[in-house]
Write a structure and sequence with these properties.
Layout: H1 2-9, E1 14-16, E2 38-40, H2 45-57, E3 62-65, E4 84-87, E5 94-98, E6 103-107, H3 112-121, E7 124-125, H4 138-144, H5 151-154, E8 161-167, E9 173-176, H6 189-193, E10 202-209, E11 211-212, E12 216-224, H7 227-240, E13 245-252, H8 253-260, E14 276-284, H9 291-304, E15 310-313, H10 317-336, E16 344-346, H11 352-364, E17 370-377, E18 382-389, H12 395-416, H13 432-438, H14 441-454
Parallel strand pairs: 2-4, 3-4
Antiparallel strand pairs: 1-2, 5-6, 6-10, 7-11, 8-9, 8-10, 12-14, 12-15, 13-14, 13-17, 16-18, 17-18
This protein binds flavin-adenine dinucleotide, D-malate (MLT) and zinc ion.
């Protein structure tokens, strides 16, 4: 193997028999610990193509890895020690920024924050934004179809991708690297690889959409008496701002209190007596009208109609950052407290209130020993409905004892209300069982048929997303 890898990628671009403590063999949350026969760092599509071809011919399976920040264990190899982990970090060039076409062409290993900065340097905007943006890679974002903080205005990652280059499971290279916004020439193959979690091939390059750079931003922290009012504000502000909202994030009083009493230093700008809060950000790229007076007028209307009970607008960039800091502190606090039982669900917006009203009673029939932390991208109908152990019990024991029972209750109600058990974090190896349980059988059959057609030997990230 050493000779083959040296011939394909050169002697400095692989690690043979990596130690089990190598951080690339453990997922971000420490749930999955894998083994690998080698970790390979290809530098070009040609090298990767040769590597994959070699694996295909020798029945060796591969696991693609980006920034290793995913929540499903999709980038962690299995326990056999036979798999090859392919890390894209050396394929990290920005190939082209096209200001006329509003596109960027990048290699898959570019870190998301680097793409955001490169767009900004050309007076453009790449809107994908999430807590892990300093370490996740665009190839990983596309493969998980990441959501994040600005889906409301710009869509999920798949909506930001025009074309891809992909090394297929037999090593051949699919070139669909087009910059076209219109291209009705058959199946949209690029979209097949978005959200495929590395199960159909390894993404090597992408053409991304960019947008005009926002020049004005208004950020609000608001308090609501109930979820119905929160959605009244959502409608009012979408309507009256000409849909200038990029983020509409929910913070429950439980998550607020968790951060306020937790180890992360983050300050909240409002009184903490209310039940529901939203961080709402408006933005626009035009200098021909002023956003702030529009947002002020919306606030005035909302106070008049008694839709909001308290609210504040960030008066400076540092206040805006501090509001976002608070929002980002929620998952960080949960992690520092030993982790939570995470649920990343989505619901039709009209059903969220019903879900929140019913769920705790059902959960408490199993145990009273938990706290909730509920937050998320409520403007997208996406809640992070997380459960933490109460002080008397220990986090690991709590998960072992109750995870399956409590999660099933949450997913069953989600299904009853027409929602999804995985809104933005994907499946990986973590939610294979739920996929079998909740996905339509014909959809599963079609997914399996696609996998078998493209990866007949099942050497591309086996056991992830599709459990063949
Ligand atoms: P990895 O974890 O390395 O890989 C993820 C999957 O993609 C794996 O199945 C892997 O095999 C595959 N893959 C990676 N690169 C390639 C490639 N080039 N070709 C083919 N397959 C590939 N997610 C959200 O959606 N929204 C959020 O708001 C959000 N916030 C987060 C906040 C924090 C603090 C953290 C730690 C994570 C968050 N995530 C969020 C989850 C995670 O950041 C995203 O899933 C991200 O898109 C993963 O990118 P990655 O490069 O780390 O991928
Ligand atoms: C977020 O929205 O902060 C993430 O998707 C959830 C998390 O990191 O747990
Ligand atoms: Zn999220």
């Amino acid at each position: 193997m050493q000779t083959e890898l040296t011939n394909i990628v050169g002697e400095n671009n692989f690690i043979l028999n990596p130690g089990s403590q190598d951080k690339r063999l453990i997922d971000h949350r420490g749930y999955f610990h894998g083994k690998a026969s080698s970790i390979v760092f290809p530098q070009t599509t040609e090298q990767l193509s040769q590597l994959v071809m070699y694996c295909y011919e020798n029945d060796l399976s591969l696991v693609p890895q980006g920034g290793n920040t995913g929540y499903g264990g999709g980038a962690t190899p299995d326990q056999t020690g036979n798999q090859i982990l392919v890390c894209l970090e050396k394929m990290n060039s920005i190939i082209e920024v096209d200001k006329v076409n509003f596109t960027m062409t990048v290699e898959a290993g570019v870190i998301l924050a680097t793409i955001q900065q490169a767009a900004e340097q050309s007076n453009m905007f790449f809107p994908l934004s999430l807590g892990a943006e300093g370490s996740c890679q665009i190839g990983g974002n596309i493969s998980t179809n990441a959501g994040g903080l600005s889906v409301l205005k710009y869509g999920n990652t798949r909506d930001l991708v025009l074309g891809l280059e992909v090394v297929l499971p037999d090593g051949r290279v699919l070139n669909d690297l087009n910059k076209l916004r219109k291209n009705n020439t058959g199946y949209n193959l690029t979209q097949l690889f978005a959200g495929a979690e590395g199960s159909l091939g390894i993404i090597t390059k992408a053409v991304l959409k960019t947008f005009p750079l926002p020049t004005q931003r208004c950020c609000l922290m608001l308090a609501f008496a109930n979820i119905e009012q929160l959605y009244q504000f959502y409608s009012l502000s979408r309507q009256q701002s000409a849909d200038c909202i990029n983020s509409f994030e929910y913070i429950s009083s439980a998550s607020l209190s968790l951060v306020n009493h937790g180890p992360v230093d983050a300050s909240f700008p409002l009184n903490n007596d209310y039940s529901h809060y939203a961080l709402v950000e408006f933005s626009c790229s035009s200098n021909l009208f002023e956003l702030e007076p529009v947002v002020e007028k919306i606030l005035e209307l909302a106070f008049e109609q008694q839709i909001i009970i308290d609210g504040v607008m960030a008066q400076s960039e540092s206040q805006r950052k501090s509001m976002w800091r608070f929002r980002e502190a929620i998952p960080e606090t949960e992690r520092l407290l030993g982790g939570s039982i995470k649920h990343d669900i989505s619901l039709p917006i009209s059903k969220i209130s019903e879900f929140l009203n019913a769920i705790e009673i059902r959960l408490k029939q199993v145990t009273e020993n938990f706290y909730t932390s509920v937050y998320g991208h409520i403007g997208d109908g996406n809640l992070h409905f997380n459960l933490l152990h109460s002080k008397e019990s220990n986090a690991t024991k709590f998960k072992q004892q109750f995870e399956q029972k409590l999660s099933t209750i949450i997913y069953e109600l989600t299904k009853e209300l027409g929602g999804s058990f995985s809104a933005e974090h994907g499946i990986g190896q973590l939610k294979l069982r739920q996929l079998q349980q909740y996905k339509d059988p014909m959809a599963l059959m079609t997914m399996n048929a696609i996998k078998t057609a493209i990866d007949p030997k099942n050497t591309m990230n086996p056991g992830k997303l599709i459990n063949n």
